[in-house]
Amino acid sequence: MTREIVDAVFTVAWGAATDPGRVRTSNEDSFLAAPPVFLVADGMGGHSRGEVASRLTVSVFEQLAGRPWLGPRQLYEAVHAAATLVASLGEGLAAPGTTLTGVGLSEQDGRPYWLAFNIGDSRAYLLRGQRLEQLTVDHSRAQECLDAGEIVDEAFQHVITRALGGGSRQPPVADHWLVPAQPGDRILVCTDGLTTELSQPAIAGTLLGESDPQAAARMLVDSAVEAGGRDNVTVVVVDAVDVSARLTLDGVDDDTVTEADWGELEHDTVIAPMEGGQR
Ligand code: MG
Fold first, then answer.
1. Interval between CA 31 and ligand 1 midpoint (Å)
2. ω into residue 36 within 30 of 0, thus cis?
3. How far from the centroid of its chain's Cα atoms is residue 97's Cα?
4. CA gap 214, 122 in Å, rounded
5. Separation of 118 CA from ligand 1 center, angstroms?
6. CA of 129 to the centre of ligand 1 (A)
7. Residue 263 has pLDDT above 60, yes or no
């Protein structure tokens, strides 16, 4: 007896870079670049406790590294676990907190998808062809003003309305978006230290001009530091190298399937290095 299996193939290459910038003495941003998860976390809170919040969040998602896919349920569970950990650091509005924004490699009905997710004002973008599109919507007063058609008050520019910790009474819900992946897609995940220093056309120009994801991530971070570097800046770039759905037959005689065939069907479970890599 045989049955059809649709097996999604999603090969990616990535790069990541971070810098404290020119003003801050510590770097409270953290990132994870370990398939199936790519994310940034922008910590906040005095005495470097924001750094603890963002690192704790990364440590929870690190446990998903090496799995073939990130699904909405795994995402929900990891967000809940991270929020609980961060909330344990303190109570009240001055309690440490962190944003959480990223993409997961996901699969639906045998087809590869980007699973973008967001809490706070870090961002994920999709570069497809020549077009750079913001996938996530900021949780910020500034975004609320834009949505209401009001002028954005400078005083509210950096006030975020959703975070892990930071005095939240309940674990926050991550907004998420499933986007069918295409070969050649390039994802940018970044903290606001990038987007407050560089315009979207400038960011798009660098992403279009540098094909290597590690070099592109480093160039974006360096440009933001040169432009002022008033905040910590962190960038993760993920490229879709191979995106396809493969139909195979299960239950066929062993001698009709070569070892190489089966090897290809198994997902890579190597845990990625912290910066550039490929799976
Ligand atoms: Mg920031």
1. 13
2. yes
3. 17
4. 19
5. 14
6. 28
7. no
SS3 at position 101: strand
Ligand 1 centroid to Cα of residue 233, in Å, is: 7
Hey, what amino acid is at 170? Q
Confidence of residue 246 (pLDDT cuts 50, 70, 90): confident
Query: C-alpha distances in angstroms, 225 versus 106, 125, 198, 207, 221?
Result: 33, 20, 10, 17, 6
* Span from the CA of 169 to the centroid of ligand 1 (angstroms): 22
What's the gap in Å between 193 CA and the centre of ligand 1? 5
Taking only the tens place, the pLDDT of each residue in 194-203 is 999 999 999 9
Instruction: Report how far ligand 1's centroid is from the alpha carbon of 179 (Å).
Output: 26
264 φ, ψ (degrees, to nearest 5): -70, -25
Decide if pLDDT at 87 tops 80. Answer: yes
pLDDT in tens, 26-63: 999 999 999 999 999 999 987 669 999 999 999 999 99
Q: What's the gap in Å between 181 CA and the centre of ligand 1?
A: 28
For residue 267, report the distance from its CA to the centre of ligand 1, in Å: 35
Residues 66/277, Cβ–Cβ less than 8 Å: no
Q: Which residues surround ligand 1, an ion (CB under 5 A)?
A: 42, 191-193, 231
pLDDT score at 251: 55
- Residue 106 Cα to ligand 1 middle (Å): 27
Distances (CA, A) of 173 to 101, 106, 123, 139, 178: 12, 19, 16, 11, 16
Q: Is the pLDDT of residue 131 over 50?
A: yes
Work out whether strand 100-108 and strand 175-180 pair parallel, antiparallel, or are unpaired: unpaired
Query: Which stretch of 50-54, 251-255, 264-268 has the lowest confidence by average pLDDT?
Result: 264-268
